[in-house]
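Researcher: Go.
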Amino acid sequence: MENKIKRTPRDKEPELKLRGDKIAGNRYYSKDFLHKELSLVWPKVWQIAGWASEIPEPNDFFIYKVGHEEILVVRQKDTTIRAFYNVCPHRGNLLVQVNEGSLKTFKCSYHGWEFNTEGILKYAKDSEDFVEKNLCENLSLEEVSCEESLGFVWINFDRNCTPLREFIYPAIEHLEPYQTKKFLRVLNLTAEIKCNWKMLHDNFSETYHVDTLHPELMSQMDNNYNDSQFDMYESGINRMLMPGHRPAKSFINNNVIEFPLTDVLKMWGLDPSQFNGKTSEARTALQNNKRKLAKENGYWHYEFLTNEQLTDYYHYSFFPNFSLTMTPDGFELLRPQPHPTDPERCFMEHWYMVPIIEGSLSGSSTFKGGEDISNLEGELFTETPAGRRPLQNAPHQWVEYPKESLGFIIDQDVGIALSQQKGVKSRGFKYSLLLGQEGRVRRYHEMLNDYIRRTEK
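Model: Structure:
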C-alpha cells in the first residue's frame, strides 16, 4: 500500500465562483440559527470522532460528544471500528457512563440490558414478558456510519451518506504522503470558550490576521498572500500553501535569521549566520539538507514528501468545523465544537500529532510554544504549539481558559474571538467585509447556507 502513495500535488485549483452571501452577525448568536445547524447540518456531515490509536485493542472504546448526541466508538474483534448511538433502546438511558475504557459488553445501569461490542442485545431480563413477541431476538443499538482514515476515526449520523473519501476529496490523497496514521497524539486539550464555534473556525480559515495578531510567527513563515496559494474544492475542502522556514517579507527584521529558525537550521547542519542578508535562501538550503540527511537521521516520514513539504505549511480547512495544519514534523488539529444549547459558547479542541523518531528528543521547532517544561527531566519530549510535551499518547485534558492556556498562539486567536463575539451584536456591525484572501471564509459560510437550505426543503 505505502509504495503506491503518490506525492501531494501543488497544482493550482481553478477558481470557484463565490456568490458573495452576506455574513451577518446574528448567525453567531442566534439560538434559531444554532438549532438549524445542529438539526440540519451536523446529522449530514462526516466528523472526526477521535484518534484511532486511542482504541488499539478489541473491546476498547471511547465516547464522542457533539450537540445533544453521544456516540459509542468501539474497536471490534476483527480490528475494524464501529460506532453506535450511546443510548439504550429500552427507555433511553445513556448506555455507557464513562468516556473511555475496555469492555466485552455494555450493560445499561437502569434495567440491566446488555449489548456486545457489535451492538447486539445479548440479555434482557424477563424478555418473554414483552407485548411484542420476539422483540429482543434481533434488537441492536442504532448504528452510525464509521470509517478510519489518516489516523482518525470518522463518523456520520447519516447511514446513506456520501463516502468519506468523496466527502473530503482530495484531502485523503493529499495527506497520505505524511503517513499520519503512524503518528502519536501528544497534545489533547479542550476548553469551553465564550464565543460561537464559527467565530474560531473563520479565524483558522484565513491568515490576513497574522501580522497584527501573531507577529512572532513572521520570523519563520512568509505569510504574504501573494506568495501563498489558495485552493477551494467543490467538496468544501479548502487549502492554503504557505512558504515556511524563511522570514516574512514584511517582518521588521527580515534580513536576520531568528529563533526558532536558527535551531532548525543548526539541527540540519546549516549555519544560520550564513543566511543573514539573504534569508530567503534558508528555505531552499534547508530542503536540500533535509533531503540529503533525512534517512541517516531516522526521519522516515519524509519518504513521500515533496521538497516544499519539508519546509512549508500545508493548511486544510474541512467542512463543517476543523482545520489541519501540516508541517514537516508534526500536524495540528484545531476544532471548535458547537455548544448544544448556547450559540455564544463552544468547546475548543487542540490536538498535536508527531512521528516517533528513533533517538530524537524533538522532531521540530516549527512552533513557538509556551515555557512549561515541568516534570520532563529525563523524559523524551517533543515541541508542540502548547510547549514541550512528553513523547507519549496524551490523555485528554480540560483547560480552564483563561486561567490555563490552550497554547500561546491559540490563546491570541481566542482572545480576539471573545472580542468579536461582543462586537457582532452591535448595531454598528452589519456584515463581514471580506478581502479576496479571505475567500475561504466566504466559501465556508456559503456551504453552511447551502446545507441548511437543502435540508429545509
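Model: Confidence is low (pLDDT under 50) at residues 361-374.
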